[in-house]
Amino acid sequence: MKWILPIFGIVAASRVFGLTLTANVDLRDESGSEAVDYAVTAFEKDLQRKLGFPVPGEATGHFTFRISRDWKAFDRHRIKVSDSGVTITGSDELGLIHGIYSFSEDVLGIDPCIYFTGIVPERVRTLDVPNGLTESKPYTFTHRAMFVNDEDLIIGFQMENQSYGMNPEFMEKLYETMLRLKMTGVIPSTLVLADEPHLVLASDMGLYINQHHAEPLGSVPLYWPKNIPYSWSTHREHFIDFWSDAIKRQKGRNVIWTLNFRGLLDRAFWDDDPAMSRKSSMEEKARVVNDVIRTQYELLKELTGEEHPLICGYLWGELSRLYSSGLLEYPEDTMLLFSDSGHGVMGDWNWKLAEKCDLKMGIYQHVSYHNRKTHMRINAIHPDTFQHEVGRAVEYGMTNAIVLNVGNFKEKIFGIRQMATYMNHFEEFQSCENGDWYFDWYAKHVLGTTQPAVADSYRDFFACPFLFSKDRKNSGDEYFFYYVEQMLNGAYQNEVDRKLMRQDLFSSSEEKWEVALERAYDCRRFLAGNVLDFYEADLVGPTLKMRHLTGMAVDFTASLEHYLNKEWHKAQLDAYQALLHVREALKAEEWIEQSGWGRFEGWYDHDETARTWHIERLLEHYIDHLKDLNYFNLDYSARNPKTPGLDYKYQPYFESEYRDELIWMTNGE
């Protein structure tokens, strides 16, 4: 008799009968691993979520966790269920941890993103689990890492136990979530030393430490001595000391080391090198990078004592261009990561390069991107894009490693779940023509509903933003601050570029958001409890926010048109409407923060990128500027000559909440 446990990505074996679990279970960790201990502690909580709290009495089942010293494989696990209990065996530390969380998700029904979603499984008193032995399948990508980038919200969030700006309790939950999603590694943040507590915690919990493309060997250029030029040509010995220090801080941990060379603060290296310039030849630039990579590799082997340390290189920015010219030389065991555009699109040049590459390959993909125009706080990359790009990467054999840039994580559950599914077992969806399947999958597997309207509300969300280009480079919430700032700077300097005033584009998008918002509010009737709380934070709040940000852009652009035509009062009226919109967008952000029981209250306090709060400040200053203009509205000759004494510059005939703020002027001024 054959059976299949409802465990994603697990090969089934034969069964006999079954095990009945209650809240009274016994957990035995034989691994001797600190990282496994973290997972076992989380697993005990998962049992309580599903079965309740133990009561006095004998254990009804025993869980045993062990690592097989004879199983020579990376990140694999077996789960054996018998009448007496469950044994979860890992081929290594990560394999065992992933086995534990597989049981949690697929047998206990624990949402792997439970810390962020708050969605709990239905409570039962007993749970029947069929006997049998299962073994995990190989993952699509061998090394699977997430990159917490632009972590401004995380820094300072819940600071009652602060350590180097990071709250260790929150970081522990973040790493736990990544392990539940079957990740193997993490870039915990940027611009921090390699032995800071939250990086050490990630390693202690079992994750490999990956490194940012601009922080080779885990070094941090931000801490480069200010009186020493960041120049390989003139200060080679300082780089060797700098990198040596970084290696020593991480020695003995599981690390995938980045070999790379960029300038200070993630720019081209020749901008900091007096012996180089942008006009230097490609050959000269490549010669420097190759010399750096050779030096880094030899230094790494010397200081770690490893003959073949795990290494990678990122083809990001100018390094991609140098490599495409055939000029860069990496060690033969390098995992070369090909980078997307930031909008999820890999670009045809990557596939052409992959055809010629004789190294191990992987990809660097974004679900969140900060470039002042895009999507820091909302999901904006369409599921079609991920389906197409990951499919091509698998086709070209770029599966040795993947680094997924997740931004601050909380706002990106939709995109993260799709990509995590692909990273683990893309073959399950390889035959899909596009990513449309994912809307229904997400509604069912995350929100627990098959109501078509709920899945369609997510489809609507991705249909509303205006596009920067035809390859689904959607606008994001970060764009709106950039737009207001850019246009006001131009207006104040009499240098407005009218081609950037996207009034028709904004108006069309605003109308779509209005309809999407109606449907999203209506869909709440299909959901309840924590699921409804999460849906409101995950979709309704962001839809409301984007509707108001787009409405702000419509009214602000209209105001700017009046400003350029010197129609000062009309400019002020539309500016007020824009200001009201942005205040509603801020309320939507507060609603997102306080969803459920308010676990993420204060999440946006340290927002230094999307900066919705700063749009409000800019518009307030803009309105103050309009109020200061002479002859605010009508020419004196057009005013009512019978008005005695003070002549109001303009009194609208309609009631208005901001009527009292309009400027009064003396007659004939």
Describe the 3D structure.
- Keywords: Hydrolase.
- InterPro entries: GH115, GH115_sf, Hex-like_dom2.
- GO terms for molecular function: hydrolase activity.
- The chain has 669 residues and is of the alpha/beta class.
- The protein folds into four domains: 10-136, Chitobiase/beta-hexosaminidase domain 2-like (Chitobiase, domain 2), CATH 3.30.379; 143-439, TIM Barrel; 440-629, Methane Monooxygenase Hydroxylase, Chain G, domain 1, CATH 1.20.58; 632-669, no CATH class.
- 41% of the residues lie in helices and 12% in strands.
- The protein has helices at 34-51, 93-106, 114-117, 168-180, 197-204, 236-250, 282-304, 318-324, 348-356, 383-395, 413-425, 437-445, 452-463, 478-492, 503-523, 529-564, 568-593, 612-627, and strands at 10-11, 18-21, 25-29, 61-67, 77-82, 85-90, 127-130, 132-136, 143-147, 185-187, 208-209, 257-258, 311-315, 334-339, 360-366, 401-405, 647-648, 664-665.
- An eight-stranded parallel sheet has the order 11-10-9-16-15-14-13-12. It has a six-stranded mixed sheet with strand order 1-8-5-6-4-3, covered by helices on one side.
- Helix 5 links the parallel strand 10 (185-187) and strand 11 (208-209).
